[in-house]
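tool_call: predict_structure(chain=1)
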Amino acid sequence: MDNFKFLNNINSPEDLKKLNIDELEILATEIRSFMVDSVSKTGGHLSSNLGVVELSIAMHKCFNSPDDKFVWDVGHQIYTHKILTGRLNEFHTLRTENGISGFCAPNESEHDVFYSGHSSTSISAALGIAEANKIQGKKDYTVAVIGDGALTGGMAYEALNNAGRSGTRLIVVLNDNEMSISENVGSMARYLAVVRAKPQYNKLKARTERALNKIPLIGSPIASLISKVKTNIKNSMYESTFFEDLGFNYMGPIDGHNLEHLCEAFDSAKLANEPVLLHISTIKGKGYDFAEKSPSKYHGISKFDVNSGEYIESSTNFSSEFGKKLCELAESNNKVCAVTAAMSLGTGLKEFSEKYKNRFYDVGIAEQHAVTFASGLAKGGMIPVFAVYSTFLQRAYDQLVHDGTLQKQKVIIGLDRAGFVGEDGVTHQGVLDVSFLNSIPDVTVYSPFTYDRLKFDLENSVNNATNLTVVRYPRGSEYQLPENYKVSNSDYDYFENDNEILFVTYGRISINILNAINELKKKGINASVIILHKIKPINKDVISIAMNYKSIYFYEESVQSGSVGESFADLLLINGFEKKYSHIAVKDEFVPHASVDSLMKKYGLDTESIVKNIMENLNG
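tool_result:
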């Protein structure tokens, strides 16, 4: 580690409090340098973290974590927070197996209050903590940090509506790094925003109000009049008083890279006797030129070269192939629309957004709305394709049921990051979608594991589906297919080698099964395999084939409860199957962060583990 002047001596927030503003500014520079170098080696979220360095420093300077609680929305911007709370020496393990998480993780540190990986939840959680403090008579503060992007999620507004008049020690920090939430006019407005955030101003304001209220008869009316005049003047300078209408004491906007102003604003917010919304303006990617110029590119990034800013890993993946195919379909069919919930780059829709602007919809971080909106598009005669990560679709379960399938709408879901996602960890693993989709009537689900099959399933769904249809595919690139293997366009592939052992599987672990069959063959053991391409509903012919085998091994990259393997077992039982059935999947647990290869091994889904399992069963 570089011989930093201050950073190497920060082992807890208490060490930070000893530094003055000038020293804290040097610390901020050191943190940025360290962070860029470290993330280039591990991958992670860069732009968002570079943008909140000063904010994180100011929070730990002005508050007393962990007594004062910080609730970070999504948690993808907490790297500085982790560094300042004793995890500097562990930072090189970021997003690696048994290393520190890329998101908030209460099991790591008492300074991480809530697990977070999904958007728009921070204000709700923080309000709950603040209310609990109020009931118990605690004087601690609760700070929710939420980005302007997260305010596109409806849950944030539900929480703001509930919190504004709660009378709690709640401070909501609105990190505005892109859109203007309350646009102001002129230098005087900016000047007054800083003045209003100073502790001296608020102390004087409080003393004046108390003094006026003590004057018999006329004091209270005068105080009220002054307040109204002040409000009218302020409203003439600011276009929006939305947060104040909800009951918040609004402060800002404040320069989120000015440590002195930030600390003054926090100290002032602590004096308020009501919930405060502190509006700060920051620059995503601050301090690293490539990230400042292209903040979206460096939002969630793989390993990269610090000097050139170029990715080290390949950019060809299932997401990009999905996006290319959708553009082809849109070119030949003007009813095809694309919908995203603020993830156009991640889901491969950038090209579509540029070519077909009038048929591209970014609805913000609002998966619930996205599903119902897509259902409305379908009702109006369009063919909507909603591209979304598996872990985020679980937020829209009710909409899938009530507004999609119940309405019998033709909505296509491009389900990205299905299965293990690896380093993003417990909040992002796509292992629940199969089970919750399996529980919804009249849903069709495909699970391709090659680019060609992905394109076929997407085109088939757009052209021929009559109901809500899901095409789910994994993160990253396709696995290398065994020699001479070609994926068909039927609901399943069946390769018969023996009538004793039958593998049944779907998705990318099909490659591991095929490789395992080749390894077993070298040991004199023959096995057959059924690879399901359509996993809901299961083709009845598959059950007829499986009934002829003595041992069936169902492998899947999903939680076991409610899975395809359970549905398959149920169909076998109904048909009178009484032989051996083994189901290998994720048990009743959440999946931690680790590489995909490591997770495959951990849950017995890699080639070596599959071969070992069969050998143990045969020898046992």
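agent: Residues 21-42 form the longest helix (22 residues). Proceeding to next step.
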